[in-house]
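Support request, priority: normal
Reporter: lab tech (M.K.)
Component: structure prediction queue

Hi team, I submitted a job for Putative cysteine desulfurase from Ruegeria arenilitoris yesterday, and the status page still shows it as pending. I've pasted the exact input below so you can check whether something in the sequence is tripping the parser. The sequence length should be 417 residues. Please let me know if I need to resubmit or if it's stuck on your end.
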Amino acid sequence: MLHETPGLIDTVRARFAHVDSCPFQGPRIFFENAGGALTLNSVVETSARFAAIPDNQGRDNPASHALVDIINRAKADLAVFMNAPSGQFFVGESGTELLFRMIRTACVNAPKGAKVIGSSIEHPASRSAARRWAGIAGLDYVNVPHDDATGLVTAADYSTHMTPDVAVATILHASPVTGMGMDVAEISRAIRAVSPDCFIIVDGIQHAAHGQLDINSYGVDGYAISPYKVFSRHGYGIAWISDRLTALPHDQLIDAPADGWEFGTRDTGAYATMSDVVAYFDWLGGQVSDAADQRTRIEAAGQAIHAYETHLTNAMINGVGNLPGLRDMDHVTILAGADNPAREGLVSIVVRHMPSADVVSRLNAQGIRTHTRKADHYSGNVLNPLGLSDCIRISLCHYNTEHEVAQLLTALKDINP
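Reply from support: The job had stalled in the queue. We restarted it manually and it finished. Here are the results:
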């Protein structure tokens, strides 16, 4: 585990910008990773370097050729990182925009009268796209209810609502509200058992930072991530699509190559920063394993990240040293249960008789950054069934420490109306 290797967490933290201080606030603990993870220093440097280059791809000059090579290298790196030996990667405006585009394409190419299936746990990025384009394409939308107590939707839940005429399906890999991870591969198998040719599109935005991406094992057709939530920066999203989704008629320029999905000239620096992210996972895997193969090192990094983040969330829930954990604080309620093995680096809570925004403000005043999730168009699908108007989201990543968890618990212990 990461914290069992002497000095490794300090080395990890040194690779990230603003790990313990905010340029506007000063010293602070960053527990708002689900809203956007910290950025690798290498990504900051790469972004600045490429921002200065005036050349574009597709020209006959040395700079343009180099840019194309860098993009191709990044796509190859992504294929290893996400274990995607087929299909293609492309860049768009954001993870949300890419989910809309993939879902739109699948829906408008589906047979009239077919169905689209998705779950109530999903972020509106995929739910909104599926419901909107199902309506436009004349398809029925089928909603799979998630379990309110666990914050999960399972393969069995999907199976209950599956029929052979389901042509498009959406799956959330991990919830940014509850922090629970879904078994994408098992859900996908359940879908294909009833509708083998269904186009399956996955929202991987919240899951990506927590490692263990393995597209080849999922049996899906589309997968989107937001790089700013996996140690890169804002301003773009990345999608992977299968060969058969690639081949569907889709928005593109007249007479453009049939397999092209990007619009306009993309930022080479965006691609290059993903090579930095993959290199980081590769490096981390080398610190926690003796693997000689890059993919095996990346898998080792993902496993170590998951194990360490589980250690941190368990410490938050069960206590550190003499400090009581969240489960032992009478004024605190933990969403989706204190003992939930699906949790991925995130604990959402409510404090009795105190609005979540007030708790977040009081924590901020002590230099602890968290976030309020409200029962709005982003989170109402999860919070409303629980009878909650809001909650406090505490989201961490593998560069956080047990000492930071202890400081959070100390602060929350004293926030008791």
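The chain has two domains: 2-39+295-414, 45-278. The longest strand covers residues 166-172. Let us know if anything else looks off. Ticket resolved.
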